[in-house]
Amino acid sequence: MLEGVGLQTIGGVLVTIITGKVTPLSCYIGLSHFEGDQVELEQPLGTLGCEHDMDRLRIFFEHQSSPASGSDYPGLNHVGAKYLFQGRDVTAYVGASWELGSDLVHMQSPLGIVGVETNGDVRLYVEHINSIVDPNEGHTAGGIKFIF
Fold first, then answer.
1. Higher confidence at residue 79 or residue 106?
2. Phi/psi class of residue 77: alpha, beta or left (left: φ > 0; alpha: ψ in -120 to 50)?
3. What's the CA gap between 118 and 121, in Å, rounded?
4. Nearest to 59 by CA among 83, 86, 28, 80
5. Residue 145 predicted with pLDDT over 80
6. Looking at domain 7-143, which of 2.40.160, 1.10.760, 1.10.10, 2.30.30 is its CATH number?
7. What pairs with residue 83 in β-bridges?
8. CA–CA dist 104, 88 (Å, integer)
9. Angle 100-83-33 (CA atoms, 0-180°, nearest 5)?
């Protein structure tokens, strides 16, 4: 079940948490379930990322891979921006990102993103990532993120 949790995963989690604690960035770790066959990763999906909000614009970098597999390197890595629609309890967003090149990802960049998440240090979320170039290429995930 946790074959993919090795030194690289543990190091990535620690670096993500420390970065979130000592910089102005909000960094997160999370787990989710996804639908779609455009990313060759096993369930559950692990997520590491950092983001920075500037008013209604969020700049982010994110890595997705599976803790259940030791053979999904480099996973899904993308960097981009999201426009935020902030409410009292939830934040919705739309944005775009660029996938950084993985043979496990079958979506052409640029990618469009739409999602919603709860506010706070523990966030429940649902997000859809789709190729802007080929709308038939998409990936939907929902899960939980812990913010540091």
1. 79
2. beta
3. 9
4. 80
5. yes
6. 2.40.160
7. 57, 94
8. 37
9. 60
Tokens found for residue 1: 């079940």
Element (H, E) at 63: strand 57-65
Q: What is the pTM of this model?
A: 0.91
Domain ranges of the chain: 7-143
Distances in Å between the Cα of 29 and the Cα atoms of 85, 100, 110 are: 22, 19, 24
| Model confidence band, residue 3 (pLDDT cutoffs 50, 70, 90) | low
Cα–Cα distance list, 92 to 58, 75, 96 (Å):
12, 25, 14
> Which amino acid appears at position 147 of this protein?
I
Q: Which two tokens stand for residue 63?
A: 């890595």
Compute the distance between CA of residue 79 and CA of residue 74 in angstroms, rounded to an integer.
Answer: 14
Structure-block tokens of residue 5 = 């949790």
